[in-house]
Amino acid sequence: HAPERPGPAGSPSGAGRAGGPDRPAPVPRRFPGQPVQIDHGPRNRPQVALTFHGEGDPALAGRILADAERAGARLTVLAVGTWLDAHPRMARRILDGGHDLGNHTQSHLDINALDEDQAYAEITGCAERLRRLTGSIGTWFRPSRSRYATPLVQDLARRAGYPHVLAHDVDSLDATATGVAAVTRKVAGELRDGAVVSLHLGRPDTVAALPLLLTEIARRRLRAVTATELLS
Asked: Transmembrane ranges (predicted)?
């Protein structure tokens, strides 16, 4: 896919109802009583957060967003900076659907293995792209290639403006699992109040699994909300 150009303010990829330079998108929030690194929400409320690593074919990403919106679900997308460089319209598309948009580093390297300067550049590089596209650095930071951030990376994220690191407690394994049934079975088997589920945009099996997961969430009388809503 050829890189896209951001549209002017007022166009679908410019300033919209969810943000833009003149109406900034939501910013990171501090949640009192929560640890720096958050991997689940309250266990006494019937809500879950479906969180997506933002990479891959934007057409598949668009299908995931549309399917979620039809079901009344709101997602959290942690975007990779190089993906935003190639597909800048996706930032506005995500926000305009009522979803959370966050930072999943600039290049999706193993951030916990990088030295301090490199790791900080990975965080701030993506933050700068998010700010340029939306007026905000995004609501969350998630480490790349790891469920959890090291204490150093947690400190660097805080320095970059993110009070919390968003981890997860349910791994769909959609990056490695073969088949829709495997993804659906893995998530359904671990779903509970407050779950934060890790999924990936741009994977055909995930696109096919999402309607099944949303049906299962509804059957259990749970609601799929953004990570911000889950913790609020």
From this structure: none
Query: What is the set of domains in the chain, with CATH numbers?
Result: 39-231 (3.20.20.370)
Packing angle of the helix pair 180-190, 204-219 (nearest 10 deg): 40
36: CB partners within 8 A, 6+ apart: 154, 158, 163, 164, 165
Tell me the pTM: 0.90
